[in-house]
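Severity: low
Component: inverse-folding endpoint
Summary: output formatting inconsistent between runs
Steps to reproduce: submit the following structure tokens with default settings.
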């Protein structure tokens, strides 16, 4: 058998995708599974965006484009940044990629040398540490707790910075916790990172999915003077229910964006031509904003209901977060208890138990760097939320 590279040997598959695959397997056997693993809006892409893709196809817009995105799309992103962030960026400071995942991976490959440390607050999105390692870096995980609303404190950040620290990754609103930084809190973190000359990677993909009227704080807005150290990531996946279209973008200093483009030249070339045209419509049409609003209103109702139902489960603690579409309850009080098939001693075992016995798919907190928690996505119907949480409650009560 051929030997794999060290890089490949050390690489873990995505745990969130793995749990979703297990749920699908069970469904394929005819079992009715309620799926709380979903990492994408359950709404369809708005019609006007689909129509724009169809029109581009019909017009024969089917060839390679500029690697970093068609000028029209870069222009639409510039308009968006002006409108939402009040900032002015040039086309050379923007690159269009195959989703935000791709943009972050490219940025890390562009910035990180072997052994460089990258600070990642936990709970974190599963791909950050793996992407840092792929780039040769060392993830430096800082734990945050439910009591801290899963927000990184200025003190913890200061303590974590060493001469080897190269970058800080922030994600607000967060996957998996739904927590979001206020402008004031974020400003403090950015100031510290900037004073230590770190690269700041701000993943703002859940920008549009905020509740309770809490304003979204973008890194580029709260501290505009750190512009030369900041790379911001955003895209169309979550806001416009376009996860399968695969478009994201990064905004940052010209010399970094230029190298990310060179990397993309060699690895993937541009993202899909006619999809880029649809993204222009997504980012510029007023209909998109009303579609987002409708979706967010519905998500907020579901968040409230799921949160309410969880309050009724003994020994489960949960916060009601202001963003994204996840709840992240603490379930550690059940560890050490017995099911018919054995002892539940961690969140992964608990998630597997819930799938097998309650037919509810959740994601263990373990791959998010948060043992003791599970992630529940409410990007599913109200009926599923009612039934799924009821079933989880029953299954937990059966543990002895
Ligand atoms: N960042 C975070 C925090 C996410 O949750 C996701 C999607 N799960 C991504 C990035 C990836 O987004 P995209 O689909 O645009 O690659």
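Observed output (run 2 of 3):
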């Amino acid at each position: 058998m051929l030997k794999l590279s060290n890089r490949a040997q050390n690489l873990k598959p995505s745990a969130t995708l793995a749990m979703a695959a297990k749920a699908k397997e069970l469904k394929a056997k005819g079992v009715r599974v309620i799926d709380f693993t979903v990492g994408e809006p359950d709404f369809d892409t708005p019609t006007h965006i689909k129509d724009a893709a169809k029109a581009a196809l019909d017009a024969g817009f089917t060839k390679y484009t500029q690697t970093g995105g068609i000028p029209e799309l870069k222009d639409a992103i510039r308009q968006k940044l002006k409108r939402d962030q009040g900032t002015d960026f040039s086309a050379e400071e923007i690159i269009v990629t195959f989703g935000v995942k791709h943009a972050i991976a490219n940025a890390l490959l562009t910035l990180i040398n072997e052994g460089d440390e990258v600070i990642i607050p936990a709970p974190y999105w599963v791909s950050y540490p793996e992407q840092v390692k792929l780039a040769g870096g060392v993830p430096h995980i800082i734990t945050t707790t439910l009591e801290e609303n899963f927000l990184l404190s200025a003190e913890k950040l200061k303590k974590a910075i060493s001469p080897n620290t190269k970058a800080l990754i922030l994600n607000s609103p967060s996957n998996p916790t739904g927590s979001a930084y206020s402008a004031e809190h974020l400003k403090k973190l950015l100031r510290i990172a900037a004073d230590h000359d770190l690269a700041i990677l701000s993943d703002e993909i859940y920008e549009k999915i905020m509740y309770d009227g809490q304003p979204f704080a973008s890194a580029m807005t709260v501290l505009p003077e750190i512009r030369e150290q900041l790379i911001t990531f955003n895209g169309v996946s979550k806001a416009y229910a376009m996860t399968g279209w695969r478009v994201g973008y990064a905004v940052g200093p010209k010399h970094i964006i230029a190298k990310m483009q060179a990397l993309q030249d060699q690895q993937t070339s541009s993202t899909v031509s006619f999809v880029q045209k649809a993204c222009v419509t997504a980012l510029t049409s007023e209909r998109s904003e009303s579609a987002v609003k409708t979706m967010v209103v519905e998500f907020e109702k579901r968040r409230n209901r799921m949160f309410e139902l969880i309050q009724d489960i003994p020994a489960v603690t949960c916060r009601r977060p202001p963003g994204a579409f996840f709840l992240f309850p603490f379930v550690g009080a059940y560890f050490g208890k017995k099911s018919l098939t054995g002892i539940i001693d961690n969140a992964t075992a608990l998630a597997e138990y819930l799938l097998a016995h309650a037919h509810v798919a959740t994601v263990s907190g373990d791959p998010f760097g948060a043992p003791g928690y599970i992630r529940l996505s409410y990007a599913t119907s109200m009926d599923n939320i009612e039934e799924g949480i009821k079933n989880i409650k029953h299954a937990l009560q059966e543990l002895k």
